[in-house]
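Help needed: design a sequence for this.
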């Protein structure tokens, strides 16, 4: 008998994958957690019925949420990741020679532990000497640190449950204060097809706080609609003005200098979401 896993991405749209094995399931203090094996995408981490990452396409998300802000910043030394307990974002951060400290702040310790056990390809850098793992509330952590980080990456789940506060105006203000004078912040901001109102709100909020606000996109097959967005707030550096010739050669599968620039070229329907703060390429 064939077994299939379905994520209902909206009340009327879902993605279904044929599964081979269930490695682990549990109810943590914060969410339902499952680790399964799919035929198409390999191992898949699922939280509250929502796909978080898969071996097959995780590199797209983790490279895009990481390398665009880190190559935009002139000299990133201290980087904070809020969420991201699977470790993929941390793995990409420490590829940058300038980074001296990469701090992970994940509220659910079980995500970290299960990822270490079943997703070594993704979590492999969590024990690196440059990395510090904190099991803590990211919102509280940001409020407790001022002028401390060069780059902050919000690698959160969808804006429900424990992640809801990570999409608020108050949180973005706290991030601004947590960053150094030339700091950069990036957050995943869902699908332009399915989450238009959320993207509008986040871009408006971030644009009201940071001198530079940019929206960029990429293709991730297992995420809702397969088309994903990220929102950047920067105090000083514009990702559109960097010289791609200065992007060092690091081990990536998706990100490169051309992708850095092209990811900010938005389709008309997406560009309209961020008016009147529409970015100019």
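Sure. Designed sequence:
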């Amino acid at each position: 008998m064939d077994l299939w896993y379905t994520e209902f991405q909206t009340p009327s749209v879902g993605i279904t994958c044929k599964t081979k094995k269930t490695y682990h399931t549990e109810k943590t203090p914060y969410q339902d957690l499952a680790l399964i094996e799919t035929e198409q995408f390999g191992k898949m981490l699922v939280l509250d019925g929502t796909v978080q990452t898969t071996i097959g396409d995780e590199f797209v998300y983790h490279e895009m949420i990481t390398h665009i802000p880190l190559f935009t910043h002139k000299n990133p030394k201290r980087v904070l990741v809020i969420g991201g307990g699977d470790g993929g974002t941390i793995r990409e951060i420490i590829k940058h020679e300038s980074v001296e400290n990469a701090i992970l702040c994940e509220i659910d310790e079980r995500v970290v532990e299960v990822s270490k056990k079943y997703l070594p390809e993704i979590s492999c850098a969590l024990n690196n000497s440059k990395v510090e793992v904190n099991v803590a509330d990211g919102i509280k952590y940001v409020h407790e640190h001022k002028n401390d980080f060069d780059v902050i990456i919000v690698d959160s789940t969808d804006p429900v449950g424990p992640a809801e506060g990570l999409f608020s105006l108050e949180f973005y203000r706290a991030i601004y204060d947590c960053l150094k004078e030339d700091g950069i912040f990036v957050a995943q901001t869902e699908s332009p097809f399915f989450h238009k109102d959320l993207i509008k709100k986040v871009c408006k909020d971030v644009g009201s706080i940071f001198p530079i606000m940019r929206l960029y996109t990429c293709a991730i097959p297992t995420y809702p609609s397969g088309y994903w967005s990220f929102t950047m707030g920067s105090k000083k550096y514009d990702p559109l003005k960097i010289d791609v010739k200065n992007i060092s050669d690091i081990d990536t599968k998706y990100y490169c200098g051309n992708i850095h620039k092209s990811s900010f070229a938005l389709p008309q329907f997406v560009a309209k979401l961020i008016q009147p703060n529409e970015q100019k390429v």
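The chain has a mean pLDDT of 94.
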